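Next up, sample data:
>
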Amino acid sequence: MLASTKVEVVIKDACILFDLFDLNLLANFYELKLTVVTREEVLAEVTDKNQLQQIQLFIEKGSLQIDNIDALDTYLSILETNPGLSLTDAAVLEAATRRGATILSSDKSLRNESTRRGITVRGLLWILEEMFRQEIISKDVLIEKLQLYTTVNLRAPRVEVENLIAKYKH
């Protein structure tokens, strides 16, 4: 039996992008064996010109694809039943549903609604572990980035981060 070579499709939200920028891991992220897709609404949340230029390079290389399907009626329907979500969240949710994709997000409301709908959601900790598993970063870099994560993102799940640090230090 052949091993699966299927590439996972993911829809990123802006908070994951910001964490990757803050940890200086954006280029490493695009080395993962993933097809990475996002929405224009997500890119609109990135206001730093330097960050936008870096993102544009990955779009031009084909490492980041933009899902441009207009589904405003669906977004509005999602927002009607989930007032805690933003228009961007609704666009990401719709695209992930339509594509059968995993969502990369650390946004609690989006994570909760995605899980309720049966959509797999992964966060930055999964990304870091996957980078290590795929040998994109070393164990030392993994631990360093985990330690840095709680300082650059005050909402980072501290207990989970500490548990991962302990796991990889042994």
